[in-house]
Design goal:
By secondary structure, this protein is α/β, with parallel strands linked by helices. It has helices at 11-17, 23-34, 41-59, 74-79, 105-119, 134-140, 156-164, 168-175, 190-199, 201-205, 224-230, 285-296, 300-311, 317-330, 335-342, 346-358, 373-383; strands at residues 37-39, 63-67, 121-122, 125-126, 128-130, 144-152, 180-188, 210-212, 244-246, 362-365, 368-371. The relative contact order is 0.13.
Length: 427
C-alpha cells in the first residue's frame, strides 16, 4: 500500500522479524505484529476523557479519579503534604517529594487525568477531581471514586493498589454505601477482571461498575502458530496475554518475545519502551487491517476492494469501518462480537451501527440488527472494485504460509491464495 505503513512494515519491525531463522517463523512473527492493536496517545486520551465525562453525566455527580499505581504509599496519595509541625495540610495535593520512583504508564495516566480535571474546573472545584486528599473528599462531599488504569492483564496491579494503597477509611465508606467505587480501564483480559473480582469483593457484587473501553480479550486470542512461537520466551507477566500496545508504553502482558531482552535477542519494544521510529504507525494501522478482518470472515472480494480504495485515497476511516461492519454482519458476526473482531473501542462500534441504522443500511427486527437490501446493494457495488494486490516484501521463496485461525480455512496475511474461495463465518 502506498499511503499507509503498518507497524510490521517498518524498518525496525523488519529487523526484528529477520532474527527468526526460517521464513515460516518470519511469517508467523509478522502475523503476531499484524494481530496486535496499536493505540495512539490521542486515541487513548480521547477514549478515557469521553468515558469519564459520560460517567459524570450518568451519575449527575462529581467524581474523584486516581491512576492505579504500584509504588505510591497511602500517605503520599490520600493524605497530602505535612506542615512544619508534622500536622497534615487539610486540602493539599499529594506529594511525591523526597521519593525516588520508576516512572511507568500510570504517570502518563495521572498527568492526563490532571489535565482533564483542570479543563473542567470552575471556582477552584472540578467535576472531575484528580487525586484529591481524603479531607477534600469529605469536605466537598464527593461520593464517586474512580480508579483508572490503561490495561488489566493479571489483575495484580489493581488488586495490590486496593489492598496496599487505598485507605481503610474510604473502604469503610464504600461498605456503608456512602461512596461508590468505579474501575475504568482502557483494555483488559477476562482472566484479569476475574482476578480483580476475586480479590476485591466489591466488584464481584458490582460488576456494572467496572467500565472497559476496549472489548475484553480471552487467552486464546492468538492462533496456535503464533502462540507456539511466543511460548518459547513466555506469553507475558504471570502467564497473562495481551494483544494491545500503547504509544505511551507497552504492557508486560504482551508476549515476552516482543519486549524482553534475552542473550542476543533484540526485542521490538525493549523493556516495554516504544521506539520513536514506530510511533507514527500507532493509530494508522487499524483502517488498513480492516481488509484482513474481512478476509478472515469470508468477505474476500470486499477485502480486496477495500484495500484498493485505501490505496487510491478515496475512502476515509469511518467509511472503511462502516463497510467492514456491513460485511461482517452479512457473514453473521454478532453485534456483540464486532468490536472484538475489528479491534476498536465498543463505543465506536455503537456509533457506527447507529449511523448505519439512521441511513437505512441496517434495520432492527425482533431485537436483532440486520443488513437491509440497501446495505446489501452497497456491498455488492463496492465488491466490483476488486483488483490484485502486491506482495508485502518479506522473502517468500522458502514456503508460503497462511495462518489457520478460523475453522481451518486459509486467512489473509498480506498475500493472497490463487483462488477467491471464501473462508469461515461466525455461527
Amino acid at each position: 500500500m502506498k499511503n499507509y505503513t503498518r507497524l510490521s512494515q517498518t524498518r525496525l519491525s523488519e529487523e526484528w522479524i529477520s532474527q527468526f531463522e526460517t521464513t515460516y517463523d518470519k511469517n508467523i512473527a509478522k502475523e503476531l505484529l499484524d494481530s496486535l492493536k496499536y493505540v495512539s496517545i490521542r486515541e487513548f486520551e480521547t477514549a478515557l476523557e469521553s468515558s469519564l465525562i459520560k460517567l459524570v453525566e450518568s451519575t449527575g455527580e462529581r467524581i474523584a479519579v486516581y491512576p492505579v499505581t504500584e509504588s505510591d504509599t497511602p500517605a503520599s496519595v490520600f493524605y497530602g503534604k505535612t506542615k512544619s509541625d508534622g500536622r497534615l495540610e487539610s486540602n493539599s495535593k499529594p506529594s511525591r517529594e523526597g521519593r525516588k520512583k520508576k516512572y511507568g504508564s500510570e504517570d502518563r495516566v495521572g498527568g492526563f487525568l490532571e489535565k482533564v480535571s483542570s479543563s473542567l474546573a470552575w471556582n477552584n472545584m472540578s467535576r472531575i477531581e484528580c487525586i484529591p486528599t481524603i479531607n477534600t473528599i469529605n469536605n466537598q462531599g464527593i461520593e464517586n471514586i474512580v480508579l483508572v488504569d490503561d490495561f488489566c492483564g493479571s489483575g495484580v496491579r489493581i488488586s495490590g493498589y486496593y489492598k496496599n494503597i487505598f485507605p481503610a477509611s474510604l473502604k469503610r465508606k464504600i461498605s456503608l454505601k456512602k461512596i461508590k467505587l468505579w474501575l475504568l480501564i482502557y483494555a483488559a483480559n477476562s482472566d484479569g477482571i476475574k482476578a480483580v473480582q476475586k480479590n476485591i469483593k466489591y466488584f464481584s457484587k458490582n460488576r456494572d461498575r467496572i467500565i472497559i473501553i476496549f472489548p475484553e480479550t480471552e487467552k486464546n486470542m492468538f492462533s496456535l502458530e503464533v502462540s507456539s512461537l511466543c511460548k518459547k520466551m513466555g506469553m507475558g507477566y504471570k502467564g497473562s496475554t495481551a494483544n494491545i500496545v500503547f504509544e505511551h508504553g507497552c504492557p508486560n502482558n504482551i508476549p515476552n518475545i516482543l519486549w524482553k531482552k534475552k542473550y542476543s535477542w533484540k526485542p521490538l519494544f525493549p523493556e516495554r519502551s516504544i521506539p520513536i521510529e514506530l510511533r507514527p504507525s500507532f493509530g494508522n494501522h487499524s483502517t488498513a487491517d480492516l481488509g484482513s478482518t474481512l478476509w478472515a470472515s469470508g468477505q474476500n472480494q470486499l477485502a480486496l476492494s477495500l484495500y484498493n480504495a485505501i490505496d487510491e485515497n478515496c475512502l476515509d476511516g469511518d467509511s472503511s469501518l462502516k463497510l467492514t461492519v456491513l460485511g461482517l454482519l452479512i457473514k453473521n458476526v454478532s453485534i456483540e462480537n464486532l468490536a472484538k473482531r475489528i479491534l476498536v473501542e465498543k463505543s465506536k462500534i455503537e456509533e457506527i451501527v447507529n449511523s448505519l441504522l439512521d441511513a437505512d443500511f441496517l434495520y432492527q427486527s425482533e431485537n436483532k440488527v440486520l443488513v437491509s437490501s440497501l446495505g446489501m446493494n452497497i456491498i455488492r457495488e463496492f465488491k466490483s472494485r476488486k483488483e490484485s494486490l502486491s506482495n508485502d516484501g518479506i522473502d517468500n521463496t522458502e514456503v508460503i504460509y497462511y495462518p489457520t485461525q478460523c475453522d481451518g480455512h486459509p486467512q489473509f496475511l498480506g498475500r493472497l491464495p490463487s483462488d477467491s474461495k471464501e473462508g469461515c463465518t461466525d455461527e
